[in-house]
Design the sequence.
């Protein structure tokens, strides 16, 4: 028989395969050390020291690279957000529409005001005159030009104009003021310059006012209103002082005087001789006329006869003989 030729590599291959299998079993069981080449101790130490440095350098380089990327990201977001279209709210009304509405509102208000002014509710239906002593309501209203049917608001707003008109046409009206009393009533408050007497010139008597002015409308030769006649005055200063003092008296007392005569003497250079309507006479100083004359009614109320009341110094009464 011819012997088989053996392959010289079979034994070695079998050996190698058995060794490999054994080595794998050892690795799996954990008994064999790693086949990695061993490094020397110095190499390990050197490697361990250089490794953190390299790691740190790598981290720093990564941080430096990360920062610009973060900034770039924020900038990119801003750019993107700026490029986004903003939604605009549509206005309820445009500018020209608002202007038209305002114009309409103004016109409506003006129309309402005009309707009120021309309606009976916006007109004066009655005037109430207060503060007068001698002047009648009709005299005051005619002098001021006030009539019913005039616009209520317009008339009140022109109070100064009507006051000037009244003063110009009637010297006895010093001033007047208008105010709304009720819906259709205006109150006319009059500051009247009262008459304090008359001065006789020819056959007429001319009224004299409290402020010393004389009215140019002379009356008949018979006095009207029971006011006194001034006589004997030689200067305008004397007369004005007496008029100013006499104007401070009450209405009843002024109308109780018949005549005032300037009658100075050596003891009193401002003495007045006053003739009363009740038949008595009064002696008094011109500068104390308003101060002392007010005691006269109480004095004569206790007397039963007529005479002369001397009020220059104290208060004395001397009956007629």
Sequence:
């Amino acid at each position: 028989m011819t012997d088989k030729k053996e392959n010289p590599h079979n034994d070695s291959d079998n050996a190698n395969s058995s060794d490999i299998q054994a080595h794998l079993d050892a690795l799996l069981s954990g008994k064999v050390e790693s086949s990695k080449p061993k490094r020397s101790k110095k190499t390990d130490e050197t490697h361990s020291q250089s490794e953190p440095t390299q790691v740190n350098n790598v981290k720093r380089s990564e941080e430096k690279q990360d920062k610009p990327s973060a900034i770039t990201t924020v900038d990119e977001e801003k750019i993107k957000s700026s490029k986004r279209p903003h939604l605009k709210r549509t206005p309820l009304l445009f500018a020209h529409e608002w202007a038209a509405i305002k114009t309409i509102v103004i016109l409506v208000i003006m129309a309402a005001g005009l309707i009120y002014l021309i309606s009976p509710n916006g007109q004066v239906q009655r005037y109430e005159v207060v503060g007068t002593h001698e002047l009648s309501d009709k005299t005051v209203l005619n002098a001021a030009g006030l009539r019913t049917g005039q616009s209520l608001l317009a008339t009140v707003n022109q109070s100064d104009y009507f006051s000037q008109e009244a003063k110009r046409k009637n010297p006895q009206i010093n001033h007047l003021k208008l105010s709304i009393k009720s819906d259709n009533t205006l109150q006319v408050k009059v500051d009247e310059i009262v008459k304090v007497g008359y001065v006789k010139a020819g056959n007429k008597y001319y009224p004299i006012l409290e402020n010393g002015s004389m009215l140019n409308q002379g009356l008949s030769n018979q006095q009207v209103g029971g006011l006194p006649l001034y006589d004997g005055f030689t200067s305008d200063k004397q007369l004005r002082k007496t008029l100013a003092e006499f104007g401070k008296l009450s209405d009843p007392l002024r109308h109780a005087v018949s005549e005032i005569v300037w009658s100075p003497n050596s003891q009193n250079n401002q003495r007045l001789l006053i003739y009363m309507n009740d038949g008595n006479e009064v002696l008094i100083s011109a500068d104390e006329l308003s101060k002392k004359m007010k005691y006269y009614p109480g004095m004569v109320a206790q007397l039963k006869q007529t005479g002369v009341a001397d009020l220059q110094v104290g208060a004395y009464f001397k009956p007629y003989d």
Notes: The longest strand covers residues 173-180. The first helix runs from residue 8 to 29. Residues 1-11, 31-38, 40-59, 61-71 have pLDDT under 50 and may be disordered. The CA atoms of residues 113 and 125 lie 18 Å apart.
